[in-house]
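Figure caption, in words: inputs first, then the predicted bound structure.
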Amino acid sequence: MKIRVDLNLAVNDNGYGILIDSGIISGGYNKETAAVLSSAGLNLKGKILVVTSKTVEGLYGNAVSSFLKNYGADDFDVMVLPDGESTKSLKYLSDIHDRLVENRLERSDFIIALGGGVIGDIAGFAAATYLRGINFIQVPTTLLADVDSSVGGKTGIDHPEGKNLIGAFYQPKAVLIDVGLLKTLDKRELTNGFAEVIKYGAVLDAGFFAYLESGYAKVLSYDEGALTYIIERSCGIKAEVVREDEKEAGLRSVLNFGHSLGHAIETLYNYEIIKHGEAIAIGMVFAAALSKKIGLCSEETVKRIRNLIKNSGLPTDIPDFTPEQYINAMKLDKKVSEKQIKFVLVKDIGKYEFKKLDFDFILGFLNENRKLA
Ligand code: NAD
Ligand code: GLY
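Bound structure (glycine present):
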């Protein structure tokens, strides 16, 4: 399956292809993959830096070397970073820059980001900032990266004061999603990525949400057909949103459903213990309950969102920080003023609404609703 993200960018840049299939990396030479690499402008005689994480290198390092050789690349280097969110830092960004300089990559050369969202975000940001921007290709290896972070061009690193505070919009030249790589992903990571899939259905596609309600168990038992379907649908939805609003001037904020509280939770946990998808799962239940509180949606809508999240094995309870800690953490969000925050709310399954809410109101609601399950 091929999806295109067509963007109204500068002349000569008409978007990029997302290829979704099983066996792209480890299945040997394939004409369709070659066509995507060629339309991405991959110069196989140029230099390539593969940036990956320790676990992924252990599992797929050899397969990726064979993959690159199969398609004719002969000058590539592999840089292995530690696993975990703390890799999305200035230190590792600077290490990637050092390696790019040492290897003398030029603007026409390529970075390949091979890994989960952490690797995609930091390697993409390194690509955006080295020589004012060199080419990069996303090869996501987690469900979260397949359905969200590898598509749409948000790249960046964290700051101790908040998540993703330093970054750039910088689009890849291609995204290669090999669904077969998910078979080694542990169940918690698979479920974590599933939270972002629920997000698309909850606020943008009621039919897809209904499919997830009946099909979540199949997806979470690693059924390749079900996984391929939800990845295709999620990328299709995301591509449409990004095509409309690449730089998040309006519509794209819908993809932040669940993220206002979710990011605050991640910040309060110092990006440890809880995973991104888990945090936004709690955030989605919270945003749905908030929508009901202001009369925007029915109890039935809240119940369906909460049940799908809970049935998938994702958390729904707000962790035990004080409401004031949450408000302070939310104030670091990029879209807040001193008194208000722009929330993505749900009107009905598949329908969203943006609303500016007073922090005082959210504080009161947090005090009333510590337990949402
Ligand atoms: P991650 O990148 O930390 O990967 C999770 C773990 O899985 C890591 O230990 C990794 O080594 C391992 N792993 C990866 N692929 C594997 C495989 N195929 N088999 C076995 N193990 C594998 O986590 P993530 O959930 O992929 O990404 C989270 C990050 O993505 C966060 O930093 C978040 O902010 C970011 N994100 C970015 C966007 C965006 O639009 N750029 C969107 C959503 C999330
Ligand atoms: N993950 C939200 C976005 O890409 O806009």
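The first strand starts at residue 2 and ends at 5.
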